[in-house]
Design brief:
The chain is of the alpha/beta class and about 525 residues long. It has helices spanning about 10-15, 55-65, 80-90, 90-95, 105, 115-120, 190-205, 265, 270, 285-315, 345-350, 400-405, and strands at about 35-40, 65-75, 125-130, 165, 175, 180, 215-220, 225-230, 320-330, 335, 340, 350-355, 390-395, 460-470, 485-495, 500-505. The strands form 5 sheets. Strands 3-7-1-9-12-2-13 form a 7-stranded mixed beta sheet, sandwiched between helices. Strand 15 (about 485-495) and strand 16 form a beta hairpin. GO terms for molecular function: iduronate-2-sulfatase activity; metal ion binding.
């Protein structure tokens, strides 16, 4: 389904590699393009967030021209529910997606998405890599054609992610957790995130000559497991420099319902060989260091891809007319509390990086010939760049929809009513644009304000949640299917107070079609 005013020639060109359209030079319409970068499983281990070990010069450079939010939180620490939440602007309790096995338009409500809203307002919307979680939760087509002007692109090598491609010391191939590789030996001689960058750059080259504004979403897979990345990145992180987590033991008084037994980690060949006890482990210290080493290496590999993409934005002359948003779907535990992976309400699982580059707002607009994002080699650059602006305000990913709409000059969707299953367009996250230039002091509530997207509450709060099938760890504690969920844990965060509350209750969904319990 084409966007409003999308010509057949442009549509075919976007789908064809190597295509260049000849069009008459014309001024770009008012309003910004959007480059939306979302990363899988990335906690804020970045130089711009104060990490002293990581090498992330390109993301740090983006931060130096952006407003950076130090306390941003996902609404659920697992891929599909988080992505559907921030792409629809609704919380998991409204999307009714807590697992991977339902499509919100069928099982909750026909909610509009952020890219759909931009598409309906004249933007060419494009998806490259992992933006929506693939599969049932996005109707097997990444919500195309509702959200996207052209079919989403997925790397051809994505299908090998969980294959035996990791060469062990014995020369055999394994499906390992820790998996530095020789890229030339990989299927197709490449990796998915490299292909994602190449396709995103191709689309930028096509769009540079077009009159139509665009919303380009680019989803990177690393540092999601397996930690498979070019082996040369290990050189950046000698194992002797890698420490254990500062609090690597399971707290003695930790409620068992709060713990996730990291089942996806346990299923990898190298972890299985360790014969780790269930559910609390622990993993051997030396292997913990290897995981942390490879996570950092995967982040630097990601940084290289982001650097190439932003450098291409410069190359096509669009850096001064394109806002850039960088975030992640959730964090990832690296041994804190004896935990690994996500699947919990701990800060390390729910806190994410979030930054906005808005030309002329967060950074002075460059001249047409000026370069804003020159590529920085992670192997030779560690500049220690600091963010253009930082906010300690607590914010949520569910606010992305309304925030980007406001930044683009579109009408901000209205706040959702208390019950919104039959409301197609509304958001449960208020725009955070008012934090971009405000002081860190509390903002007074506006008298008589009826629209939550326009009102500023005195103390921002972030809510996250995670389901469990029982109050003790079991094989499906990390990813319970909807029919097995018996407990929902919630966490609430403010700038000066963090209180995690687990609410034990038997689930019934009076507002939802009960037949969904039997569907996949």
């Amino acid at each position: 389904m084409a966007a409003t005013g999308l010509g057949l020639g442009l549509c075919l060109c976007l789908l064809a590699a190597g295509c260049v359209l000849a069009v008459e030079a014309a001024g770009r319409p008012d309003g910004m393009n959007v480059l939306f970068i979302v990363v899988d499983d990335l906690r804020p281990v970045l130089g711009c967030y104060g990490d002293k070990l990581v090498k992330s010069p390109n993301i740090d450079q983006l931060a130096s021209r952006s407003i950076v939010f130090n306390n941003a939180y996902a609404q659920q620490a697992v891929c599909a529910p988080s992505r559907v939440s921030f792409l629809t602007g609704r919380r998991p309790d409204t999307t009714r997606l807590y697992d991977f096995y339902s499509y919100w338009r069928v099982h909750a409500g026909n909610y509009s998405t952020m890219p759909q809203y931009f598409k309906e307002n004249g933007y060419m919307t494009m998806s490259v890599g992992k933006v929506f979680h693939p599969g049932v939760s996005s109707n097997y087509h990444d919500d195309y054609p509702y959200s996207w002007s052209i079919p989403p692109f997925h790397p051809s090598t994505e299908k090998y992610e969980n294959d035996k491609t990791c060469r062990g010391k014995d020369g055999r191939l394994y499906a390992n957790l820790v998996c530095p590789v020789n890229v030339t030996e990989m299927p197709g001689g490449t990796l998915p995130d490299i292909q994602t960058t190449e396709e995103a750059i191709r689309l930028l080259k096509v769009m540079k000559t077009q009159k139509q504004k665009f919303f380009l979403a680019v989803g990177y897979h690393k540092p999601h497991i397996p930690l498979r990345y070019p082996q040369e990145f290990l050189k950046l992180y000698p194992l002797e420099n890698i420490t254990l987590a500062p609090d690597p033991w399971v707290p003695k008084k930790l409620p068992s319902v709060a713990y996730n037994p990291w089942m996806d980690i346990r299923q990898r060949d190298d972890v299985q060989a360790l014969n780790v006890s269930f559910p609390y482990g622990p993993l051997p210290d030396d292997f913990q260091r290897q995981i942390r080493q490879s996570y950092y290496a995967a982040v630097s590999y990601l940084d290289m891809q982001v650097g190439r993409l932003l450098n291409a934005l410069d190359d096509v002359g669009l850096s001064s007319s394109t806002m850039v948003v960088f975030t992640a779907d959730h964090g990832w535990s690296l041994g804190e509390h004896g935990e690994w992976a996500k699947y919990s309400n701990f800060d390390v699982a729910t806190r994410v990086p979030l930054m906005f580059y808005v030309p002329g707002m967060t950074s002075a607009a460059a001249s047409q010939q000026g370069r804003i994002f020159p590529y920085l080699d992670p192997f030779s650059h560690n500049l220690g760049l600091v963010p253009q602006g930082q906010s300690k305000k607590v914010v949520e990913l569910v606010s992305l929809f309304s925030t980007l709409a406001e930044l683009a000059g579109l009408q901000v969707p209205p706040a959702c009513p208390k019950t919104s299953f039959h409301v197609a367009l509304c958001t449960e996250g208020a725009s955070i644009v008012h934090y971009f230039n405000s002081s860190e002091e509390k903002v007074e509530t506006e008298d008589g304000c009826e629209d939550n997207n326009r009102c500023h509450t005195e103390e921002p709060v972030a809510f996250s949640q995670y389901p469990r099938p029982s109050d003790t760890p079991q094989w499906n504690s990390d990813r319970p299917e909807l029919k097995d969920i018996r407990i929902m844990g919630y966490s609430m965060r403010t700038i000066d107070y963090s209180n995690k509350i687990s609410l034990v209750m038997l689930w019934s969904f009076p507002l939802w079609n009960q037949s969904c319990f039997n569907e996949e």
